[in-house]
């Protein structure tokens, strides 16, 4: 059984909401081995225009599943997020099984094998690298990196943070503001 932690912003998490989210998320339990302790973090938020956002994250060793959906109906948003998570699980399961089938038939899969559902193996789901670049990271601060990113017209920019002496990434958020990812 997946343990679900639910947090609400600008909304009271009622027993009905909690039960609905837990029931929907626990439908994903069939994809995980019995030995795994699986936790899910659900964040629900409502805005002034009554639009709601549901975000569910399932952190695991070596993989983090995450999906979010905005909708004016909270229950519809939960359904959509769980469908997205299920697609991610199936896609990852297919990719891992294909990879290990090529290397070794006696692998230990991250997910249970579902005999009642055939594996999806669409060619358009394969990850293909179509271009590769190599460049030297220049030491700079985050503001300079944002200026470089904007000048290049990119959505993100990787740089060496001159103050932390570590690799960092700046990126443009959907709301038009900027984010910073710092590495250790």
TrEMBL record:
<dbReference type="Pfam" id="PF16321">
    <property type="entry name" value="Ribosom_S30AE_C"/>
</dbReference>
<dbReference type="InterPro" id="IPR038416">
    <property type="entry name" value="Ribosom_S30AE_C_sf"/>
</dbReference>
<dbReference type="GO" id="GO:0045900">
    <property type="term" value="P:negative regulation of translational elongation"/>
</dbReference>
<dbReference type="GO" id="GO:0043024">
    <property type="term" value="F:ribosomal small subunit binding"/>
</dbReference>
<dbReference type="InterPro" id="IPR050574">
    <property type="entry name" value="HPF/YfiA_ribosome-assoc"/>
</dbReference>
<keyword id="KW-0810">Translation regulation</keyword>
<dbReference type="InterPro" id="IPR036567">
    <property type="entry name" value="RHF-like"/>
</dbReference>
<comment type="subunit">
    <text>Interacts with 100S ribosomes.</text>
</comment>
<dbReference type="GO" id="GO:0022627">
    <property type="term" value="C:cytosolic small ribosomal subunit"/>
</dbReference>
<comment type="similarity">
    <text>Belongs to the HPF/YfiA ribosome-associated protein family. Long HPF subfamily.</text>
</comment>
<keyword id="KW-0963">Cytoplasm</keyword>
<feature type="domain" description="Sigma 54 modulation/S30EA ribosomal protein C-terminal">
    <location>
        <begin position="126"/>
        <end position="180"/>
    </location>
</feature>
<dbReference type="InterPro" id="IPR032528">
    <property type="entry name" value="Ribosom_S30AE_C"/>
</dbReference>
<dbReference type="Pfam" id="PF02482">
    <property type="entry name" value="Ribosomal_S30AE"/>
</dbReference>
<dbReference type="InterPro" id="IPR003489">
    <property type="entry name" value="RHF/RaiA"/>
</dbReference>
<keyword id="KW-0175">Coiled coil</keyword>
<dbReference type="InterPro" id="IPR034694">
    <property type="entry name" value="HPF_long/plastid"/>
</dbReference>
<feature type="coiled-coil region">
    <location>
        <begin position="75"/>
        <end position="102"/>
    </location>
</feature>
<protein>
    <recommendedName>
        <fullName>Ribosome hibernation promoting factor</fullName>
    </recommendedName>
</protein>
<comment type="function">
    <text>Required for dimerization of active 70S ribosomes into 100S ribosomes in stationary phase; 100S ribosomes are translationally inactive and sometimes present during exponential growth.</text>
</comment>
């Amino acid at each position: 059984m997946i343990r679900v932690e639910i947090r609400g912003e600008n909304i009271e998490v009622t027993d009905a909401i909690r039960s609905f989210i837990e029931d929907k998320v626990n439908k994903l339990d069939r994809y995980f081995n019995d030995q795994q302790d699986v936790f899910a973090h659900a964040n629900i938020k409502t805005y002034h225009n009554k639009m709601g956002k549901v975000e569910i994250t399932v952190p695991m060793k070596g993989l983090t599943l995450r999906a979010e959906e905005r909708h004016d109906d909270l229950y519809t948003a939960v359904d959509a997020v769980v469908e997205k998570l299920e697609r991610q699980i199936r896609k990852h399961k297919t990719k891992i099984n294909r990879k290990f089938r090529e290397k070794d038939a006696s692998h230990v899969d991250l997910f249970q094998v579902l005999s009642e559902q055939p594996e999806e193996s669409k060619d358009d789901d394969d990850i293909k690298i179509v271009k590769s670049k190599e460049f030297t990271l220049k030491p700079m601060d985050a503001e300079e990196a944002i200026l470089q990113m904007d000048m290049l017209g990119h959505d993100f920019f990787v740089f060496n943070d001159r103050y932390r002496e570590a690799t960092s990434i700046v990126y443009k958020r959907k709301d038009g503001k900027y984010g910073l990812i710092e590495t250790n």
